[in-house]
Amino acid sequence: MRELPSSWSQTAIGSITADVGQRVPSPIEEITYIDIGAVDRDTKTITAPQRVLGAEAPSRARKQVQSGDTLVSMTRPNLNAVALVPPALDGQIASTGFDVLRPLQGIDPRWIGYLVRTDSFVDAMSSVVQGALYPAVRSKDVRAYRAPLAPSAEQRRIADLLDTLVARVQACNDRFDTIPALLKRFRQAVLTTATSGALIDTADGVGRAGWEKCTIGAVAADLRYGTSKKCDYGPKGTGVLRIPNIAERGCIDVGDLKRAEFDSNEVRKLALLEGDLLVIRSNGSVELVGKTGLVTAKEAGLLFAGYLMRLRVDRGKVLPAFMQVWLSAPAQRQYIERTAKSTSGVNNLNAAELRALPLEFPKLHEQVVILCRVEALFKLADRLEARFTTARIQARRLTPLLLGKAFRGELVPQDPTDEPASVLLARIAGTRGGLSAEPKTRRPRQARSTGAPQEITAMSKSRHDEDVMGKPYLAGHLRRLGEASAAEALFKAAELPVADFYKQLAWEVAQGHVKDGDTLLEARDAA
Q1: Same structural domain, 221 and 343
Q2: Which of 91, 122, 459, 473 has the greatest number of beta carbons closer than 10 A?
Q3: Bridge partner list, 308
């Protein structure tokens, strides 16, 4: 991995963010409540906060946020529900399911906002989740994440450029998101044109002027329901096609095939032939009713279930593929859905209703021409869709790639006149009263049987020494003592000022270097 620029540092998120308190909104106070569902995971923005009275707010509505805070969802961190709080939501209330990262002076809020969107952060949080049914991380996990830190001026330059580039990538992705609907409209337009007669010129002129008008029943050689016999995934018996086997664009998928045992009479009546149409006759979704699947030689010999109808047409009049095009065209779909729609929750198209559906068709040789042109246009749409799918995958990787470059120091050139990040960290530590660049953790118990350490003179060490800060310094002393020890014994061996001793001890306990018992401390390997 490329080393960070010399003017950069690496530190825990907790060292550059402030602790955020909680408050309970008053019952009559109207608040804007930000829960995890209000965060758009694609755009990393807060899009749907709720306006509620304090009395109606959930018990998790406790964290008061400010403009510039970064919200990090602690549940399912792999989904990366994070967002920067905009000025419009300054002073509002967020869920305790968020860790609220409030940047300290010298830290650009956008630096934190972009940092928690990186693959590195998401991977790190995903590796420390706890719980299976409700996987989550803790606030101390978020704040313990060690992140690169650029000088303040460079943070702003990087964030400014990211604002521009990420907005362009998002605009690109937004445009990509419109393409599936455009392709769907294109395919529907092809079907409409095909069934209107506009795809072919005839001696009778453009349109359906010379087409025969009748009902589907007039050209149906056979129409029947499928079997009601219970099927399973066993290896024996004859395969039975069901609604899930009717795939998109009129194809049949036999990947999820169930089977059952049938006698020869049942097989004779229900076996499918190449060119049969399977029609969905009943479903809770009216959009599926009337959808068709065209049987090919691969599915011939299989049977079909009761929620399907088999339509076998007179091929001397209508080609099966043309019948499928007719039933799939928008005008016919609207007619079918009006006929099938029910208020009972189960929409149904029975055999009599299917037979009564109107049908218009040209001569057979003209049907062949129409089908060839429909197939050519659909293949064009398929090629466009394949190219779109590849391009969208690549476009969705642009933002992670940009963020990766940004936090490696590769997005903008470094300015040698910038104040180094190490000076910024030292200033932050000074304003915090000498706290280290590690996340704040709960202090261990001070009431021990041997008595709490007291300040003594002539301490030879400081927590800012290279062999102490960020190292298992106290754990090493415990190992040299050879046994679990009381806090006072460890304090004397460590030769640290009492304030530094407790800060170092709290950090080593949080990092797993030291086990804090009721009365004794012992060294252990970090998790």
Answers
A1: yes
A2: 473
A3: 280
The encoded tokens of residue 361 equal 């068709």
* pLDDT of 105 over the 80 cut: yes
SS3 for 358?
Answer: strand
Residues 258 and 242 sit within 8 Å (Cβ to Cβ) = yes
Is residue 507 domain-resident?
yes
Task: Examine the fold and report which residue of 328, 361, 394 is the final residue of a domain before the chain moves on.
Answer: 361
Residue 357's nearest CA partner among 193, 244, 185, 195 is 195
Are 44 and 403 a contacting pair, CB within 8 Å?
Answer: no
131 shares its domain with 43:
yes
Q: Give dist(CA 153, CA 418) in Å, integer.
A: 6
Rounded-to-integer distance, Cα 279 and Cα 298, Å? 18
Whether the Cβ atoms of residue 212 and residue 357 lie closer than 8 Å to each other: no
Element (H, E) at 152: helix 152-196
Domain count, the chain: 3
Q: What are the E-state strand segments in 365-517?
A: 514-516
What is the domain-level CATH number for residue 217? 3.90.220.20
Asked whether residue 206 is assigned to any structural domain, the reply reads no
Q: What is the DSSP letter of 249?
A: G
User: 388-406: string of b/e by CB count within 10 Å (b at 16+)?
Assistant: eeeebeeeeebbeebbebb
What is the domain extent for residue 224? Answer: 212-361
Is the CA virtual torsion 142, 144, 146, 151 positive or negative?
A: positive
Domain final residue, candidates 329, 361, 393:
361
What is the per-residue pLDDT across 431-486, written as a single tens digit (0 to 9) for each? 876 444 444 444 444 444 334 454 443 456 777 777 888 888 888 888 887 777 77
